[in-house]
UniProtKB/TrEMBL annotation:
S-adenosyl-L-methionine binds at T162, G183, D205, N248. The gene is prmA. GO terms for molecular function: protein-lysine N-methyltransferase activity. Signal peptide: none annotated. GO terms for biological process: methylation. SUPFAM superfamilies: S-adenosyl-L-methionine-dependent methyltransferases (SSF53335). The keyword Ribonucleoprotein applies. This is Ribosomal protein L11 methyltransferase. InterPro entries: Ribosomal_L11_MeTrfase_PrmA, Ribosomal_PrmA_MeTrfase, SAM-dependent_MTases_sf. Methylates ribosomal protein L11. Its main location: cytoplasm. It holds the Pfam family PrmA. Keywords: Cytoplasm, Methyltransferase, Ribonucleoprotein, Ribosomal protein, S-adenosyl-L-methionine, Transferase. It catalyses: L-lysyl-[protein] + 3 S-adenosyl-L-methionine = N(6),N(6),N(6)-trimethyl-L-lysyl-[protein] + 3 S-adenosyl-L-homocysteine + 3 H(+).
Length: 314
């Protein structure tokens, strides 16, 4: 999977707000380079002075950088990032240049560098996502852990679209269901489904890297170790009927998937779709309704939405 580094040039005072904007847009963490951090200061036991003139650094302002996988449609979110940063002036923050630049990233370097940004996350009342390199003990008896080594795949539980999908699964799963996970990414939703009591889970992804990552993550969670992960283009050719189908993907990909999902849903079955930016919500709602599915709940976090739709009885 390819990654892109998105760098926003701004001011020192806007660093925290810009960081939040980038994370809400799908980043798992940020890198901050602030000119204010490069002022000369005493270093070492002998009072050696750090000379910023001899070190590579920016001379003024700040840069906030974030990393996005190819599963995130950058042409859509880059204008939104720039607009949201511009709106910070409404809150009295100076934003400086507000330049947004992109750079391709060496995937091998990113695979290890980003681990410092990833820590246990309590996503819902019952679900906590834990990186495999962290030691974590449940805080409550009912808390269930999802162990992940996300590597190069998207879906760690930190992004709003993943959290919303997990919350939706927690809403509809009662135990014993058959579930299809479309665009499984890291496998986090398949593991979630098994932890919540789903019986049979089948995971699909078009990206072979994601399929390998999901398989490895499922193996880290004994309850989900036997979930099959298959390379597949959405639900094309799938004949397995299901009580629940979940897809955390872009709205542009959700729309052609809906007609594929409709005939696979059992009566009263649920289709959960996440990854829907607020401006595309009506379009996805219409797509679901046109397919004969009833939208029973819309979950929101920031500018992101997830929808729970239900198949009608025959």
């Amino acid at each position: 999977m390819e990654w892109t580094k998105v760098t926003v040039t701004t001011t020192s005072e806007a660093v925290a707000a810009v960081s939040n904007i980038l994370i809400e847009a799908g980043a798992n963490g940020v890198e901050i380079t602030d000119a204010a951090d490069f002022k000369a200061q005493a270093l070492g036991p002998y009072g050696e002075i750090y000379d910023p003139a001899k070190q590579p650094c920016i001379k003024k302002g700040a840069q906030v950088a974030a990393y996005y996988p190819e599963t995130i449609f950058l042409p859509e979110i880059l204008p939104q990032i720039k607009q949201r940063v511009a709106q910070l002036t409404d809150f009295g923050l100076a934003i400086g240049e507000n330049k947004v630049a992109t750079t391709a990233v060496d995937s091998h370097n990113w695979a290890t560098a980003w681990k410092k940004y990833y820590h246990p996350v309590r996503v819902t009342r019952f679900l906590t996502v834990v990186p495999k390199w962290e030691t974590y003990q449940p805080k409550q008896p009912e808390e269930k852990l999802i162990i992940l080594d996300p590597g190069m795949s998207f879906g760690t539980g930190t992004h709003p679209t993943t959290r919303l999908a997990m919350q939706a699964l927690e809403t509809v799963i009662r135990g014993g269901e058959t579930l299809l996970d479309v665009g499984t990414g890291s496998g986090v939703l398949s593991i979630t489904a098994k932890q919540l009591g789903a019986d049979q889970v089948y995971a699909y992804d078009l990206d072979k890297v994601a399929v390998r990552a999901a398989t490895n993550n499922l193996a880290l969670n004994p309850i989900a170790a036997q979930v099959p992960v298959t390379v597949n283009n959405l639900l094309a050719g799938v004949t397995q009927s299901a009580d629940v189908i979940v897809a955390n993907i872009l709205a542009e990909i959700i729309l052609p998937m809906i007609p594929q999902a409709k005939p696979l849903l059992k009566p009263k079955g649920h289709l959960i779709v996440s990854g829907v930016i607020a401006t595309k919500l009506k379009q996805v709602e219409q797509g679901l309704q046109q397919a004969g599915l009833s939208v029973i709940q819309v979950l929101r976090e920031g500018d992101w939405c997830a929808l729970i739709a239900q198949q009608q009885e025959d």
